[in-house]
Amino acid sequence: MSDYKRFVAYLYEYHGNTKGENRGFVRVEARNGSCQMGFQLKVISLPERTPLNVCGFVRIRDVLFGIPIGILRSGKNGISGRLLAPAVHMGDTAFSLKDLSGLLIRGPEGKIYATQWDDIPIDPGRFTTDPSVLQDPAPAESADETGSEIPPAFPATEAAAADTSETVRIASTEKIPDEKEALQSDPIPEPEGKETEAGKDGPSLPLPGAGSPEERWEILFSRFPHIRPFDDDEISDCVRLDLKDLPELRKAGWLISSNQFLLHGFYSYRHFLMGRSSSLGNVIILGVPGIFDIREQFMAGMFGFSGFKPARNQTGASGNTPFGYWYRQVQ
Fold first, then answer.
1. What radius of gyration, in Å, describes the C-alpha atoms of the chain?
2. For residue 114, which of 206, 25, 40 has the smallest C-alpha distance?
3. What is the DSSP string of 155-197?
4. CB-CB neighbours of 237 under 10 Å
5. Among 143-147, 238-242, 244-248, 294-298, which is the least confidently predicted range?
């Protein structure tokens, strides 16, 4: 099994940019295109259910470029859990597990836990999820200072589908319909929620890199229809999106690709959404509609969608399988 990989790495708490105490470990296992990470950290100072963002990082020149892996939550006796992600095209980027130099976990009040898989010290102050660091500073060149080629932020759609087709079949035995089949199938009831009059007559979306994420979000929020699919405000200010909106979102700098999981959700429910997550620190999330079961959870995890939130008054056909949205942070 040539793609099999398994190793353990220790996680340390960082105080500013200084490496501190050993807080636990992560066990990484990759096979058949899927990566599973098991975490055990002895951190008892956080309230229960506190969310912590887990990112892999790639060294781009002098910057640690973060790739979202998933979300852990603290418990009574520390932080533990498992996250699933694709071993290739992690976080909808062209980077794979073999490209990562380590992991960085971000908690509240600047808490940082990290591990490096190379011999270069970690400087958390140089960590960023801003995709602009992937842009080549010299247009005529395509390499960083070490001479290594920097892959593009997104793979070509055809290549991504080819690379992930095997893992998608492993994750789910259900056939992912193509667009023609989906249009001919019976419509599936949409989640309950009032749609507002907000539409595409608002301000134009900015060019990539123009304005802060908050400014870009405010413009996006004024451009697309609003929906309220949830009973509480943990995820709020949601906008309903269509597959045809993806090129416009990418031009505005949002890192969203038409991967197999997003296509599966869209062709089943004819929409996806973006919104704010208060539980993750008011960050912007991408939500893909689906149901909560083991097969779909595995498939969602492969593409970085580690969170699930049930929609209001929605259950599956069996009456006990909730409909909702698989979500992840988006930049």
1. 20
2. 25
3. --HHHHHHHHHHHHHHH-SSPPP-HHHHHHSPPPPPPP----S
4. 17
5. 143-147
Alpha-carbon distances of 205 from 208, 214, 280, 293, rounded to whole Å = 9, 13, 25, 36
Query: Residue 175 and residue 329: Cα distance in Å, rounded?
Result: 27
**260 pLDDT exceeds 50?**
yes
Amino acid at 175: K
Q: Running DSSP on this structure, what letter comes out for residue 143?
A: B
CA distances from 180 to 50, 55, 99, 174, 185 (A): 43, 36, 37, 17, 9
Buried b (16+ CB within 10 A) or exposed e, 167-204: bbeebbeeebeeeeebeeeeeeebbeeeeeeeeeeeee
Confidence at 213, pLDDT banded by 50, 70, 90: confident
**Sheet architecture: strand order including 307-315:** 226-227, 235-241, 272-277, 283-291, 322-329, 307-315
């008054």: which residue's tokens? 313
Q: Which two tokens stand for residue 235?
A: 């995820």
Which residue stretches of 192-292 are H helix?
213-223, 246-251, 260-269
Closest C-alpha among 309, 299, 237 to residue 274: 237
pLDDT tens, position by position, 161-201: 333 333 332 233 333 333 333 333 333 334 444 444 444 55
Which amino acid is present at 267? Y
Q: Which residues pair with 235 in a beta bridge?
A: 277
Residue 51 CA: distances (Å) to CA of 3, 43, 175 = 31, 13, 33
Q: Which two tokens stand for residue 192?
A: 């309950």
- pLDDT tens, position by position, 118-155: 889 999 999 998 888 887 655 444 344 434 333 333 33
Q: Which amino acid is at 196?
A: T
According to DSSP, the residues that pair with 66 across neighbouring strands are 57
Distance CA 57, CA 117 (A): 10
